[in-house]
Design a protein that fits this description.
- Pfam families: DUF1858 (PF08984).
- This is DUF1858 domain-containing protein.
- InterPro entries: CHP03980_redox-disulphide (IPR023883), DUF1858 (IPR015077), ScdA-like_N_sf (IPR038062).
- This protein is mostly helical.
- It has one domain.
- Helices cover about 50% and strands about 0% of the residues.
- The protein contains four helices and no strands.
- The radius of gyration is 11 Å and the shape is globular.
- The relative contact order is 0.25.
């Protein structure tokens, strides 16, 4: 599967570009919204920091991005 999220994309950048991803972040128990580290953490780093399955997090974020839902 081709990754839609750039490996250098930050959590803050992802949430700003596609607000629908905020719901995914919160559902995974992450508090990236408003976190001072979010502008620097990539998806990989955030998944590792929160002890999450990175592949699942990426799939969920990509699904939110593809849905085009605007919150």
């Amino acid at each position: 599967m081709k990754r839609k999220l750039n490996d250098d994309a930050t959590m803050d950048g992802i949430m700003r570009a596609t607000p629908a991803t905020i719901r995914v972040v919160l559902q995974h128990g992450m508090l990236c919204v408003g976190c001072p580290i979010a502008p620097f953490h990539t998806v990989s780093e955030a998944a590792r920091e929160h002890d999450l399955d990175e592949d699942q997090l990426r799939r969920d974020l990509e699904a939110a991005i593809e849905s085009g839902d605007v919150d």
